[in-house]
Amino acid sequence: DRYLTEIEMNLLEEVVQVILEEWCRQWKEEQELDASLIGRESNGRFLQTSPQDAIMLVLSMEATIGDCSETIQVAVPYYTLEPIIKTIHARRQREAFQSKVEKRPDWSDAYDSIRVPVTAEWDAMEVTVQELMQLRSGDVIRLPREVIRRTRVRLMNTTKFEGEVGLEGDRVVVRIGSRTTSEEES
After folding, report:
1. In Å, how far are 4, 154, 155, 169 from 119, measured between CA atoms?
2. Which of 60, 65, 11 shows the shortest CA–CA distance to 40?
3. Which residues make Cβ contacts (< 8 Å) with residue 184, sequence separation at least 6?
4. Neighbours of 31 (CB within 10 A)
5. Beta bridge partners of 72
6. Could you report the per-residue pLDDT of 51-107, keeping only the tens digit for each?
7. Residue 66: left if φ>0, alpha if ψ -120 to 50, beta else—which one?
8. Could you point out which of 30, 96, 97, 146 has its C-alpha 20 to 30 Å from the C-alpha of 74?
């Protein structure tokens, strides 16, 4: 229970300077910041950095040197951070808006002749080996209507879409319903 010596204060200032430089480095993408110590005070009531009712962001650390342990607090008035926070918020809103607007890939004419195998498939039912062995050419397998609504469309052996099978004139077609997020895709 004593005041810090001049040597201890200078060592403590160096530690605080390192902390503040790291703090400034965290914001370098938003704004270049420089930290400087303009004084020391052991009681926050005597600081004249901001109004008394200002909201503060406080970093509290417990420092231990030998058998001495004490709390160090670095306080930053919120209003000094507000411009940076507004910049971050605006950037995140722009990024969110840009991600909502789907970007179409650049198309090259060289892609036009690439052939991609497309397969439509269902999980129709389970049968025993005996039932499978009894199937003959011309047999009819009845499928529930719900199976047809859950047709999986595979591109290059990867399930990409779910849709519904139907007829269009004399052709069998699949209407694409939704994009899948299957484990195979990831």
Report:
1. 77, 5, 7, 20
2. 11
3. 158, 159
4. 11
5. 61
6. 878 888 888 888 887 888 888 787 788 888 888 888 888 888 888 877 666 666 778
7. left
8. 30
What local confidence, expressed as pLDDT, does residue 186 receive?
41
- Amino acid symbol at 39: G
CA dist 87 and 32 (Å) reads 13
Report pLDDT for 184.
46
Tokens in use for 131?
């039932």
- From 133, 181, 139, select the one nearest 159 (Cα to Cα): 181
Cα–Cα nearest to 23, from 88, 69, 81, 83: 81
pLDDT, tens digit, 9 for 90 and up, residues 7-61 = 988 888 888 888 888 888 888 877 788 888 877 777 767 777 778 788 888 888 8
